[in-house]
Give the backbone structure.
Amino acid sequence: MWAEQIILAVIGLSSGAVVAGGLFAFLIELGVIADFADRTHTADHLLLYEDAAALGGIVGNLFFLFHVPVPFGRWLLPLFGLLAGMFVGCWSMALAEILNVLPIFVRRLKIVRYISAFILSMALGRGVGAVLYFFKNW
Amino acid sequence: MSSNPDTLYIKGERDVEVTKREVTLGDILSFECSNKALIPKVKALKILKIPENGQKRYVISILKIIACIHAQYPGVEIRNLGESDLIVTYENQKTPGMAVHLFKTAFVVVLTFMGAAFSIMAFNNDVSVPKLFDQIYQWVTGIKPDGITIMEISYSIGISIGILVFFNHFGKKRFSVDPTPMEVQMRLYENDIQTTLVEDASRKEEELDVGRANHPGGHRA
């Protein structure tokens, strides 16, 4: 009985550590948060942003697994949705950027002008996609 | 002056911010010369005059700078030990208010906090972590788990350890002397931006270089 519990604890602990490493490497190496710091000219608070990301990961996981009731959850929910959406939007664009999607299309299709329109339509497409996904219950 | 045998060593950073409109060589480069008297004279040479309104960022080729020195001191031998293209950015003296800065910082803190929380939940949800825990629990103990088990608790501790080891610090306390992954990422990002600026300017032929007549601000007053 005790041995089983210890085995389970070791599995849980190591999977947690590895998942955290992988997920956060994915998040940081795509440069999402570095982008935020650069856009807002607040790179001097970089360590603070790292703390926020670390805390977010830890707390988010706790809320998810233990179903902790959130105080004022009803009021925090729209804020959470908005910010999580912004974060994921930046993240997905960073992923597209790192994989050189845009430069390859621009080069292949010989797009010289109106690259901003291209980007805008990409953003709109993502937004429409998200709306469809949620309202159609896919 | 023309028979001056001195060797002048110059070194510049790739990205320089200036706060004056009259940019002298001393603002953007550092110098070393065995003839100490020459250094202040060269430092005072004007390379660029930034117009009142208009372009705030210039890319200057080191050749332009050497030409600028040679125009005054033709005999000096110049050795460049720094970058070959310098980005000069004119930054207005007025800094945004402390309140704006704090607001932006607070916004990014909340954004990263909630974004990271969402990411980990999305990951757990996507790969059905709770279901997987139940399966492993049942496989090891043979009993169907009810409610929270040791796995959830140890996984949460593991997540915390993994994140803190990855980020290499919490608060002001660092676990080792290495820079944190985000500090590295930030520098990489800045490097990419600088490389892009230099290459863009040279491709569009906007770089201030020798043999080109394009000096929007008049390179020497």
Observations:
- Residues 215-221 of chain B have pLDDT under 50 and may be disordered.
- Chain B has two domains: 7-94, 98-201.
- Helices of chain B lie at 25-28, 38-43, 62-72, 98-126, 129-141, 150-167, 181-203.
